[in-house]
Amino acid sequence: MPPVHPYAAAMRLYYNPRCSKSRAARQLLEEAGHAVEIVNYLDTPPDAITLARLLEHLDAEPADLVRTTDAAFRDRAHPATTLNREAVIDLLQATPELMQRPVLDTGTRAIIARPPERVFELVDNSHNH
Question: What CA–CA distances, in Å, run from 48 to 87, 88, 95, 128?
Fold first, then answer.
């Protein structure tokens, strides 16, 4: 078998096509020639196992993966809700639209790409800079 590029199979961009930051991150990755699986998490919400892995890889606290300023969060979550790992997994399974976006996961590390240029923290950016 030929060697596989380290990002070819594992790199995923959790993406919302209506989000300008998601579209920008995707464009940056594609223009730099990186193979990336695009996951429209509203059409294909991540399951509990996928969310748990994503949280393990994330360079931030579990609560950072939740769009806490969204009206749906205020409607759904009690003000005293502690957004620990388990609560985030439960919340995002029930309400996937509350997932922060875009999120790039290489299979070992993940970031919330806000601003979109943060994708280059995880991938070789020698094509652009």
Answer: 11, 10, 12, 35
